[in-house]
């Protein structure tokens, strides 16, 4: 009896199912860490203040980042999803910061015209939040 058919696909499907199940029960353990190897978190922190993200978000470690319009960005490095939509990793977080209206048309977070290099550093800071 052939219990394990050849080829990598059945194995991958099993792994995908395990990851999906694990994602619900033990957040943070089944996905690689979202932290960014790229970008400058210190510059990102300064940029967050410049762009006024803190007028809408509670962001740990920053003065006057206590806005309640959007969700708090506490422990963002351990979040599974961005805006309940994109898996949380450095690339997706940069995309969200640059073009939230593209990711989720009509979202209450406006496109702030953040260029790529700034989004990279802002994401780097948010992903340091444990
Ligand atoms: C005018 C208010 C406003 C401003 C300014 C704003 N945001 Fe948001 N942000 C929101 C709202 C509202 C959401 C929730 C969007 C959704 O879930 O559809 C959000 C969602 C997010 C999320 C995902 C949160 C989660 O829990 O998944 C991140 C990350 C984020 N914003 C980062 C930023 C950054 C960085 C800036 C500055 C460059 C910024 N925001 C500026 C209102 C704002």
TrEMBL record:
InterPro entries in the record: Cyt_c-like_dom, Cyt_c-like_dom_sf
Residues spanning the signal sequence: 1-22
Pfam family, one: Cytochrom_C
Protein keywords: Heme, Iron, Metal-binding, Signal
PROSITE patterns membership: CYTC, PROKAR_LIPOPROTEIN
Residue intervals of the Cytochrome c domain: 39-130
Name of the protein in its database record: C-type cytochrome
Organism: Blastococcus carthaginiensis
